[in-house]
Specification:
The protein is α+β, with helices and mostly antiparallel strands and 421 residues long. Helices cover 16% and strands 50% of the residues. The strands form six sheets. Strands 3, 5, 6, 7, 9 and 10 form a six-stranded mixed sheet that branches. Strands 12-19-18-14-15 form a five-stranded mixed sheet, with no helix packed on it. The protein has a five-stranded mixed sheet with strand order 21-28-27-23-25, with no helix packed on it. The termini are far apart.
C-alpha cells in the first residue's frame, strides 16, 4: 500500500512539472508577414527575390522564461546548403505574462523553383519541447524579371590607363515571359565612358551572355578605383536592373604638356591709296606666326568686285611655321570705267574658323593715270615700308622666344632647387 502511494505521488509530481514546463513556453499570439496577420497554415502568394518581413508576438506563461529563441525557415530549396533561407532572433528573456514582438527577415532567392513551400516559425528554449507554426508560401514568377548574374572584366582586377577594358555581362530571365532586344550598357561615369550591346532573346529560365563591351581608358587619368555601372533594360525599355562594380586603373599621371600658343601679328601697309582708272596699286600685308605651332591663314577681300580686279600674291593661302613671317601683296586694278572718288573694301585674315583681323582699306579713284616715275617711286616706298615692318616683326618674335626660353630655364632651375642671380 505504501509503495502504491509513493508511485502515485511520483506520477503526480512528474505531471505537475510537465505542466509547468509547458506553461513556461511563450505562446505565439500572432504572426505578421509584410504587415498582414496570418493564421497557422494560411497561404501567402510570393515572388522570387521577395523579402519577407516577419513579426512574431509572444506572451510568457505563468512563470518567467530565459533564453527564448524564435526562428523562421523555408525548407526544400535546392541550394539551401549554400544559401539557406533561415533567420533567427537573438535569445531573449520574458517575465511571467509579459508580451514582446520580435522581428525577422527572410530573403527568397531568385533561383527558387516556382512551387509551394512552408514557412516554419519556431519558438523554443534551451530545453523542453518547441512550438512550430506553419504558413504556406505559393511562389510564383512575375511576367517580366531579369537579374544580372555575373559581370566579367578583361583584364579582371585592374587596367592600365591608355589600354582597353572589355566587359561581358551574364543575364538570367527569372520571369514568366521570354525577353527580346535586351539592352546591356556599361558606363564609367567619372571618365565619361560607355558601351552598349543587345542580347536578341532570353527565354524564361535561361541565361545569356552579352558580347564584349569595349571601352578604352584614356591616357594620363588618375590611378585609382573607378565605379563601373552595369544596366540592363528590358520589357520594351520600361524595366531596368543595375549593379555597380569597381575597376582599378593603374599607370602614372602624364606630365602636363606645353600649352599651345596661338599668337599672330598682322600688319597692313598704307590703308588708303590713290589709283587712276585702269591703273593698279598694291596693299602690302605681313603675317607673323609668334606661336609655338604651325598655322594656316586665309586672306580674302570683300567689297571691291564691282569696280576693280583683285589679285593676292603669292597666294591667299599662307602656311607659317612657328616663328615664321611672310609678306602678302593685295594688287588692286581699278576698272577703266570705275567711278571717280573714294571706294572702300574689307581685307580679312582667318585661321580655321576664327577671323583674326579685318581691315577697311580705301582707294581714291582718279581720272588720270600716274606717270611711270611716280609709279616707280610709289613702289619703292611700299618696298621700304614692307622691309621695315618685317624687321620690326622679326625683332618682336625673337624677343618672344627669348622670354619663353628664359622662363623655361628658370622653371627647370627652380625644380632642381637651384637659383642663379
Amino acid at each position: 500500500m505504501k509503495n502504491t502511494i509513493n508511485v502515485l505521488l511520483a506520477i503526480f509530481l512528474v505531471s505537475f512539472l510537465a505542466v509547468g514546463m509547458v506553461s513556461a513556453l511563450p505562446t505565439v499570439d500572432e504572426v505578421k508577414i509584410d504587415g498582414d496577420i496570418y493564421e497557422n497554415m494560411e497561404s501567402l502568394q510570393v515572388e522570387r527575390g521577395d523579402q519577407l518581413d516577419i513579426r512574431v508576438k509572444v506572451t510568457a506563461g505563468n512563470v518567467s522564461e530565459k533564453d527564448i529563441e524564435i526562428s523562421a525557415e523555408v525548407l526544400g530549396y535546392e541550394y539551401s546548403d549554400h544559401e539557406p533561407i533561415f533567420a533567427r532572433v537573438h535569445t531573449f528573456d520574458l517575465d511571467a505574462y509579459d508580451t514582446d514582438p520580435m522581428d525577422l527577415t527572410l530573403q527568397l532567392p531568385d533561383k527558387m523553383d516556382k512551387a509551394y513551400y512552408d514557412l516554419r516559425v519556431t519558438v523554443g528554449t534551451r530545453t523542453g519541447p518547441s512550438q512550430e507554426y506553419t504558413y504556406r508560401l505559393h511562389l510564383k514568377g512575375i511576367k517580366h524579371s531579369l537579374i544580372i548574374k555575373d559581370v566579367v572584366f578583361n583584364p579582371e582586377a585592374s587596367v592600365e590607363s591608355g589600354r582597353a577594358l572589355l566587359t561581358t555581362v551574364r543575364v538570367k530571365n527569372i520571369g514568366e515571359k521570354d525577353e527580346e532586344s535586351v539592352k546591356v550598357k556599361v558606363t564609367i561615369p567619372e571618365l565619361g565612358l560607355s558601351a552598349s550591346d543587345y542580347i536578341d532573346e532570353i527565354n524564361d529560365g535561361d541565361s545569356e551572355t552579352s558580347e564584349e563591351l569595349y571601352m578604352r581608358i584614356p591616357e594620363c587619368v588618375e590611378a585609382k578605383d573607378y565605379n563601373v555601372k552595369i544596366t540592363v533594360e528590358y520589357d520594351e525599355g520600361y524595366e531596368t536592373v543595375s549593379v555597380e562594380k569597381m575597376i582599378t586603373v593603374t599607370g602614372d599621371v602624364c606630365a602636363a604638356e606645353e600649352p599651345v600658343e596661338k599668337k599672330t601679328i598682322i600688319t597692313v601697309g598704307p590703308e588708303t591709296q590713290d589709283v587712276a582708272q585702269g591703273a593698279s596699286v598694291i596693299y602690302p600685308l605681313t603675317i607673323s606666326n609668334a606661336g609655338n605651332t604651325a598655322r594656316t591663314y586665309v586672306v580674302s577681300i570683300d567689297g571691291a568686285e564691282t569696280w576693280s580686279t583683285i589679285e593676292v600674291t603669292p597666294s591667299n593661302l599662307v602656311v607659317l611655321n612657328a616663328g615664321e613671317s611672310k609678306a602678302v601683296y593685295v594688287s588692286l586694278t581699278a576698272n577703266d570705267d570705275a567711278t571717280v572718288g573714294e571706294h572702300m573694301f574689307v581685307l580679312s585674315v582667318k585661321s580655321g574658323d576664327t577671323t583674326l583681323k579685318q581691315v577697311t582699306l580705301k582707294a581714291d579713284v582718279t581720272g588720270e593715270k600716274p606717270s611711270g616715275v611716280l609709279s616707280l617711286k610709289r613702289g619703292l616706298e611700299i618696298g621700304v615700308i614692307i622691309l621695315v615692318v618685317l624687321l620690326v616683326i622679326l625683332g618682336l618674335i625673337i624677343g618672344f622666344n627669348k622670354l619663353r626660353e628664359t622662363g623655361e630655364e628658370e622653371h627647370e632651375e627652380s625644380d632642381k632647387g637651384e637659383t642663379y642671380y
